[in-house]
Amino acid sequence: MILISERIKKLLIITDGLGVDKTFVTCVIILLSIGLVMITSATLDQAYQKLNNPFHFTIKHSIYLVLGIFTVYITSQIKLKFYQDYSKLFLVLAFIFCILVFIPGLGFEAKGARRWINLGIITVQVSEVSRLFILIWVSSYILRNNIDEIFYKSVIIILLLSSIIILQRDFGSMFLLILTFFSLMLLGGVNFKKWFSTAIILIIPIALLVILTPYRFRRIMSFIDPWQDSSGAGYQLIASELAFSSGGLFGLGLGSSIQKLNYLPEAYNDFIFAVIAEELGLLFVILVILTYIIMIMRIFILAHKSADNGLLFGSFLANMIGLLITFQVIIHMMVNIGLAPTKGMGLPLISYGGTNLLCIFMCIGILIRIQIENKQKISQAVQRGY
Length: 386
Known about the structure:
By secondary structure, the chain is mainly alpha-helical. The chain folds into two domains: 20-77 and 225-371, no CATH class; 83-212. 73% of the residues lie in helices and 3% in strands. It has 14 helices and three strands. The chain has a three-stranded antiparallel β-sheet. Helix 2 (22-51) packs antiparallel against helix 12 and helix 3 packs parallel to helix 14 (355-383). The longest helix has 37 residues, at 272-308. The N and C termini lie far apart (45 Å). The mean pLDDT is 88.
């Protein structure tokens, strides 16, 4: 334990010298640590029963963590100018990745959805990558043009990608993309009347996608009254609420969750917040929420600081990443608590690793790069005598 604390202390000293936000890095490390512990707790019994190895998911998640740290290092070394200069390439890649899933032999279907491509060693959920790439393009596009003039063109491109994503039966990714895009546009200063009228118009087709698709409509109805179909569509929500009620203030104890024992589907991913509440209680849940709030606040502070230092692209990227993480956290927690219809969306940095975790690590690397370039900008100003 002393050795680990010394290494973390050394890491923080190094990051401070580079201009990296120590508070932000500390929050990331805390959330990753909670994730590793809770994934181990949530999967021990299931992994032993099905795979005869209680640490199967822990080992796989640890591999993703190592890959993620490597991703952070690589992306933190790439100058922001690269993302801006090659933003059109990111746009093209966003569409290519989404289309690849429909190629026989490359894309494959699971649980009725066709969202993944098989790369042999790992599988990739293409919508996660495409969403990040197109938002990088949006951040560059609105900086290089008058935001009011290119608003409708940007909306059309976002809707085109969203249409491909919805063909993969990934309503959550589509919704998160549109929500983040419109929020970023609002922060970018688009005309509010134009923004509001477009948002209202888009509510209609999104609502129709829910109403006219039987399994999505059942989720809405089970959200309103989960006990109406307690063994079907309302099952996950009831199990999640039972986990919260069982945990109380201090929890049942680490590893003592009952709902994770084949009662709560995807306990290590889509419903890990409920397992945290059941095992560690309300007080620990509040600490997790506070950690997220502090981390997200540091991201938006970085965006404001970047704008002040003239790094406008860095500011847009930080705002985009901040919004993306914020909405994922809110949606996951609301679903787990029962304040939103059931939707498969992991809790950033805590849920079981995969494409989403690696994309979050890429975002962290970009944020660190923004912090580094902010320090370089300030250092250059001091050297010039300002």
